[in-house]
C-alpha cells in the first residue's frame, strides 16, 4: 500500500509542478528559509483522504497537518491488531521543488509502536519508487517498470566514503552543522548536500552514497527512507520514537563496512550529540 500511495502522490506532484502560480503559492513555516507550497498541502490532503478511505482505523502523522485519525481504540481493533501510524511527507525537498532542482520525493511509511514496518519513497522527477518491508529486503522500481533489489556499497574505508548530509532551517543549528562538516570533510572522500533526506537514505540503500547523517529531521523525513536503507544492509542511528525535530537528534545511515569507523568519527567530532534549535 505504501508503494501505491507514494506513486499516486508523486504523479499528483508531477502534474501540479507546471500549473502553480509560484508568486501566490509559496509561504514559510519555521523560518524564512523553510518554504511550504500549495502543492505540499494539497498532496498531503490527497494522501490523508486515500488513507482515511483505505485504512480508517489507522492514525496519520504528516509534515504539514500533524497527527490525526484512528477512530477505533486498541481494545476494539479486529483480532487485537496493533495500532498502525502512517507517517507521510508530501514533498521531501520542497526547496528543490520550488527552484526546479530535480531531487524531491514523496515519502510514505507505516509504523507500529514508532518502528517503521513498511515504506516507500517515490522520486518524483526520475519516476522511481524505492520500497521495503521489515525483514523483506529493499527494492527500487525503475521508470520502465523493472524492479531490482538494493544493497549498500561494499566500501570498507571511511576515507573512501561519499557522505550525504543536510542543513536545518534554524540559524543556530546550521552554524553547528557547518562546523561538523568542516571537521568531517578532510576525513572522507567527499560530502554531498542533495536537499532531500528521504532520497539521501535511499541513496545509501542503492550505493549512490555510502552514508548519510543529519540532525533534527522530522519522522516524516526518515520513516520510510531509514527502513529502506536498513533493509539494504545499512547500519542506522535513529532517535527515540517520540523525539521532536526541535530536539535536534542525529539520524544516520551507514554502509555496513564503514559503520564502526564512521560511527567513531562522528563521535570524535561531536556529531552524535543532538543540536537543539
UniProtKB/TrEMBL annotation:
**Keyword terms of this UniProt record:** Hydrolase, Magnesium, Metal-binding
Presence of keyword Metal-binding: yes
The biological processes this protein is annotated with in GO are: inositol metabolic process; phosphatidylinositol phosphate biosynthetic process; signal transduction
Reactions it catalyzes: a myo-inositol phosphate + H2O = myo-inositol + phosphate
What EC number is given for this enzyme?
A: 3.1.3.25
Q: Name one GO molecular function term.
A: metal ion binding
Under the heading CDD domains, the entry gives:
IMPase
The UniProt entry's sequence similarity note says:
Belongs to the inositol monophosphatase superfamily.
Full protein name: Inositol-1-monophosphatase
Instruction: Tell me the name of the encoding gene.
Output: suhB
Amino acid at each position: 500500500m505504501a508503494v501505491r500511495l507514494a506513486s499516486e502522490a508523486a504523479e499528483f506532484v508531477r502534474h501540479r509542478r507546471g500549473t502553480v502560480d509560484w508568486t501566490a503559492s509559496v509561504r514559510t513555516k519555521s523560518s524564512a528559509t523553510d518554504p511550504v507550497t500549495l502543492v505540499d498541502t494539497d498532496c498531503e490532503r490527497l494522501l490523508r483522504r486515500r488513507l482515511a478511505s483505505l485504512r480508517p482505523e489507522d492514525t496519520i502523522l504528516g509534515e504539514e497537518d500533524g497527527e490525526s485519525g484512528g477512530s477505533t481504540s486498541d481494545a476494539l481493533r479486529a483480532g487485537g491488531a496493533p495500532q498502525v501510524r502512517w507517517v507521510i511527507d508530501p514533498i521531501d525537498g520542497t526547496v528543490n521543488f520550488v527552484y526546479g532542482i530535480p531531487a524531491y520525493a514523496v515519502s510514505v511509511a507505516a509504523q507500529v509502536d514508532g518502528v517503521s514496518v513498511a515504506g516507500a519513497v517515490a522520486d518524483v522527477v526520475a519516476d522511481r519508487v524505492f520500497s521495503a518491508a521489515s525483514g523483506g529486503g529493499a527494492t527500487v522500481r525503475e521508470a520502465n517498470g523493472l524492479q531490482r533489489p538494493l544493497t549498500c556499497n561494499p566500501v570498507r574505508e571511511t576515507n573512501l566514503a561519499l557522505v550525504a548530509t543536510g542543513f536545518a532551517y534554524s540559524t543556530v543549528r546550521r552554524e553547528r552543522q557547518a562546523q561538523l562538516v568542516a571537521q568531517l570533510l578532510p576525513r572522507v572522500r567527499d560530502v554531498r548536500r542533495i536537499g532531500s533526506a528521504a532520497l539521501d537514505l535511499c541513496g545509501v540503500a542503492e550505493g549512490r552514497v555510502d552514508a548519510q547523517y543529519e540532525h533534527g529531521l522530522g519522522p516524516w523525513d526518515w520513516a520510510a527512507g531509514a527502513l529502506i536503507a536498513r533493509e539494504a544492509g545499512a547500519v542506522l542511528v535513529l532517535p527515540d520514537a517520540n523525539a521532536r525535530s526541535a530536539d535536534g537528534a542525529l539520524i544516520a545511515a551507514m554502509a555496513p563496512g564503514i559503520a564502526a569507523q564512521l560511527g567513531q568519527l562522528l563521535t570524535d567530532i561531536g556529531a552524535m550529540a543532538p543540536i537543539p534549535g
